[in-house]
Design a protein that fits this description.
Blueprint: H1 3-9, E1 20-21, H2 23-27, H3 30-33, H4 38-57, E2 63-68, E3 74-78, H5 95-101, E4 102-103, H6 125-130, E5 132-141, E6 144-151, E7 154-163, E8 170-177, H7 190-203, E9 208-213, E10 226-230, H8 236-243, E11 255-261, E12 264-272, E13 280-285, E14 288-289, H9 295-314, H10 327-330, E15 334-341, E16 347-348, E17 354-355, H11 358-378, H12 380-409, E18 434-439, H13 440-450, E19 456-461, H14 473-478, H15 480-489, E20 507-511, H16 516-532, H17 534-538, E21 542-545, E22 550-554, E23 557-561, H18 564-574, E24 581-584, H19 593-601, E25 608-610, H20 616-627, H21 631-641
Parallel strand pairs: 2-9, 13-15, 18-19, 18-20, 20-21
Antiparallel strand pairs: 1-4, 2-3, 3-8, 5-6, 5-8, 6-7, 9-10, 11-12, 12-15, 13-14, 16-17, 21-25, 22-23, 22-24
Helix pairs in contact: 4-7, 9-11, 13-19
């Protein structure tokens, strides 16, 4: 029996380590689940599902069922070994009760139980218990069915056991979030959970995750619940295929790596595409999406650059005297998923989404290098196609560099002829400064007059900016409006050179008209930020202004309405025979400077939406569908979602 097998087999009460009680959790829930809003609410589900996935990682589980119940509770069932039910040596209670009532009491801490464990906070199911109105746990183990109920963290009675189905093992955790904790609501969002469960199924190939919504609102005409099944034998290879479904792959076979060294498991899937001009690399450590990268991503980028430059010389594509292809040239058009499983992960940064283990860099470099080198040796046509694309990117980058130098030489602060007519703010502190990107001179004029010059800058753009989803770098840097954006914001060079210290405004606000053209311009600007400098979106620097659609006047009083619902509520509040006038704002240029300040720019009264990426994969795919070259996927998207449109609201 191998050491790993011994660890997995010896899963009883003695493998459960005890650290502390639940009192701190209800007092400061944000410390344990991030927030008490929707994100924290859904984190409860992830925490229970992560336990089931840990069983899958240990080789003891291949079925997970997640159900949203009619009463607002959620249940997660797996066919793993079942939470141990024997008496814990330290607490004198069953291991099940210990796991549910003691913080950090789980098989993922210390050397016993699990070799590798997922879960961002690693706080275990006890936090779910602490923050739930009630929890009902059912364990199938040793031909017995063990059940216990908990309310707001406390055990109600002791563990009950009855004879069960012979040979059945597993755990069901059913919980209802506590409305006293989650004051903004305890209703689960199907789409939010769906994207994470799909992601987990891709990352753990061969594990079947069934997601069922039994709530009344989700049932079809026949009264049947909505159900999705996520099961991907190909794992992350299918993940890459899904990401590239709307793109034109350069080579049909996805390059796949699956190897282990020094206890670190490395899995990678790579495919280059003809019609993509930036890379899409998703990194994961122990099933956690590493938004801020880390040593595993650094190792991947290093080995790609070194290996492809070696092949470029070997295959006569580059002379010894030629400059090496840069990393961004080589990665142009690359879609990659890199998943590492690390026994003792070290996460860095405020959001704990950057892997810090230094040893992982070299392990990824070595393992990916060996597998990639072997694949390319046996597939010369593939390496030639990748190198041709990289060399084209290198040549385009040289042309772009020359165009870029023009941009760099124009200092925003000194140039009065800056394209876009930037009206800067007087503050030089980026953390308090904000810039409004507006369409056209008329809106720009109102915004310039209505703003607070101390901390608000205005950058009007002429017309619709370039769609960079289908444009190479040279054209990007030659475009006047994009030059204005890059220089005014202090963005640096595409993707690679982002440095928060150079960013001139920490709040970048897109402010466009509330019509079809305005929405298109907003989408083009978002595409620019997502593809040119994704770190801006991931760092929470991008906002969308929400100007009102209507102004309702009654006597000397007026009310601004931001949507049809607001308008209806306002009119109904006046009574049937009231006299009032309604002004519909067709564009920002129609608003007086004072109106624009009151409704859209005054920090005390405005409404702004921060642009966040909850699901990086889906965001990447949607940008490709909506802004890419292929018409068929876009038509299919429109046909699929057309039923959700309220045609009366379309400004056409």
């Amino acid at each position: 029996m191998s050491e790993a097998t011994k660890v997995q087999a010896a899963y009883g009460a003695e493998q459960i380590q005890v650290l502390e009680g639940l009192e701190p959790v209800r007092k400061r829930p944000g410390m344990y689940i991030g927030s008490t809003g929707p994100r924290g609410l859904h984190h409860l589900v992830y925490e229970v599902v992560d336990n089931a996935v840990d069983e899958a990682l240990a080789g003891h589980c291949d079925q997970i069922l997640v159900v949203l119940n009619e009463d607002g509770s959620c249940s997660v069932t797996d066919n793993g070994r079942g939470i141990p039910t024997d008496i814990h040596p330290r607490t004198g209670k069953s291991a099940l009760e210990t796991v549910l009532t003691v913080l950090h009491a789980g098989g993922k801490f210390g050397a016993g139980g699990y070799k590798v464990s997922g879960g961002l906070h690693g706080v275990g199911v006890s936090v779910v218990n602490a923050l739930s109105e009630w929890v009902q746990v059912t364990v199938y183990r040793h031909d017995q069915v063990h059940t216990q109920r908990f309310e707001r963290g406390a055990a109600i009675g002791s563990l009950a056991s009855v004879p069960g189905e012979k040979g059945r093992t597993g755990t069901t955790v059913c919980f209802k979030p506590d409305s006293q904790i989650f004051t903004t609501g305890i209703s689960f969002d199907y789409a939010t959970l769906s994207s994470r469960l799909r992601e987990l199924a891709y990352l753990n190939g061969g594990v079947r995750i069934v997601f069922r919504d039994e709530r009344e609102s989700a049932r079809n005409a026949a009264g049947e619940p909505h159900e999705d099944i996520y099961f991907y034998e190909g794992g992350i290879r299918e993940y890459v295929a899904y990401m590239n479904a709307e793109k034109d792959p350069l080579h049909p076979d996805i390059i796949y790596v699956n190897a282990e060294k020094e206890g670190v498991q490395v899995e990678a899937a790579l495919q280059w595409c003809v019609d993509a001009y930036s890379d899409s690399i998703l990194g994961f450590a122990n099933n956690i999406r590493t938004v801020d990268g880390g040593t595993h991503i650094e190792g991947l980028k290093t080995v790609l650059t070194r290996t492809l430059n070696t092949f470029a010389k070997k295959r006569g594509k580059r002379k010894d005297s030629d400059a090496n292809l840069a990393g961004e040239n080589i990665r142009e058009g690359l879609t990659a998923v890199l998943s590492v499983k690390v026994p003792e992960p070290e996460f860095e940064g405020q959001t704990k989404t950057k892997l810090g283990n230094t040893e992982v860099r070299g392990i990824v470099d070595t393992l990916v290098g060996e597998a990639l080198g072997e694949f390319l040796e046996f597939n010369p046509s593939v390496i030639d196609l990748i190198l041709e694309k990289a060399i084209q990117a290198f040549n385009a980058a040289e042309a772009a560099r020359r165009a870029r130098e023009l941009v760099r030489r124009k200092s925003v602060l000194e140039s009065s002829t800056l394209p876009g007519k930037l009206a800067d703010c007087s503050s030089r502190d980026p953390s308090e400064s904000e810039i409004y990107i507006v369409e056209g001179d008329s809106a720009g004029g109102s915004a310039k007059q209505g703003r607070d010059r101390r901390f608000q800058a205005i950058l009007p753009l002429r017309g619709k900016i370039l769609n960079i989803e289908k444009t190479d770098d040279a054209k990007i840097y030659k475009n006047t409006e994009i030059q204005a954006l890059i220089t005014a914001l202090g963005l640096g060079i595409k993707g690679e050179d982002f440095d928060e210290k150079n960013l001139r405004y920490h709040r970048i606000v897109i402010m466009t008209d509330a019509d079809v053209d305005g929405a298109h311009i907003r989408t083009l600007i978002l595409t620019f930020f997502f593809r040119y400098q994704k770190a801006l979106v991931e760092g929470g620097y991008i906002y969308i202004a929400c100007p009102p659609l209507y102004k309702v006047e009654r006597g000397k009083k007026h009310v601004y309405c931001y949507n049809e619902g607001d308008l209806k509520t306002t009119i109904e509040s006046f009574g049937e025979k009231a006299n009032y006038t309604i002004q519909r704002f067709k564009g920002l240029g129609e608003m007086m400077p004072q109106q624009l300040w009151e409704t859209t720019m005054d920090p005390a009264t405005r409404t702004m939406k921060r642009v966040e990426i909850e699901d990086a994969l889906e965001a990447d795919r949607i940008f490709t569908i909506l802004m890419g070259d292929k018409v068929a996927p876009r038509r299919e998207f429109i046909e699929t979602h057309s039923a959700e449109l309220d045609l009366a609201q379309l400004d056409i």
